[in-house]
Fold this sequence. Notes:
Elements: E1 2-7, H1 9-12, H2 18-30, E2 38-42, H3 50-57, E3 61-65, E4 68-69, E5 72-76, E6 82-85, H4 87-93, E7 102-106, H5 111-117, E8 123-127, H6 133-148, H7 153-167, E9 174-178, E10 194-199, E11 210-217, E12 225-229, H8 242-246, E13 247-251, E14 258-260, E15 265-268, E16 273-279, E17 285-291, H9 292-303, H10 306-322
Helix pairs in contact: 2-6, 4-5, 6-7, 9-10
Amino acid sequence: MRGLYIGSRALSEQGLLLEKEVTALQRRFTQSVGEPVEFVFLPAVLAEDLPIEIIKHEPEILHISTHGDKDGLSFSNSGNNEVKISHDTLNAIFHNENPPRLVYINACDSDLIAEKLTGRVSMAVGTTAPISNRAALTGAISFYDRLIRGFSVKDAFEASSAIIEALDNKCTKSHLAFNGTVQPEFEILHYVPRLIAKFHGKFGNEQSKFSIELGVHGCPKNTHQMVFYTDDDTFVDDDKEFEETMVSIYRGYPRRGVIWSEETWAGIEGNFKCFASGVSPGGQAFVVAGELCNALELYYSMTDDDARYVQHMRAVARLRAQDGSGLSENDGKAFVKRN
């Protein structure tokens, strides 16, 4: 995720909490997992430098923190005078072929500006009224916290909007504008590694043992080795080496952010804990953990049509029922609800 934070120096002395906002966001971004979060912070940009900085960094996310009203966003120029930046000015500044995917405007009365920006950018966030400093700060932190956890833009916006309304006694609302090229509920700007799994081969309705493949979705691009393993003692076989039954190693890079284990885990009769550790050539590492049934549900919720999803969820319910950890496969609630 690549972003650019822009604020105004002279105006930051008039009550905005730019330093707190920058510090809080920097701290949160350093705790992210998955692909690196590259956010450039420029809390003291002059109006005449806006075109240079936006084109130079070509951000996926442009965050603007300043004062605002219906006439535009306030910046200071080199003479320390106030300059109003309108939506027309911002649209003209954006790169013709590579505009930001999202613009987050942390300013009062910025909803109309956000709406007008969607002629050039896919999504923009603004507010419908004056907003307090505390609500603006908390709302922004909540929004980006959800994004870097792998939530969609819509999910992140709804969490941010709710806290803004609560802190400003429902006097201010956040507004998400978007054009017809996107669906915010499906727009994920930062992928977090998550365990996935799929059944290997065909199986019947009465089958009790399954073969599965483990995988990781959302791998960093530079991942070059993945180790899949479990701590479940039922996999221990005294006639085989420990790593033959408990560990599977994959060496290679992700394809579209996904790595699958090269070996099939056969004879699976129930749910169990599974883990994956990924490493990069430079030595960076990450670990993901979960349960097989949750990993199966995640994969098939992303890939199946409704009929095949129900079929696969029946098999997942069977795995859960066989080890006593879940509902019967005959209980429709176990498999008809999709994420």
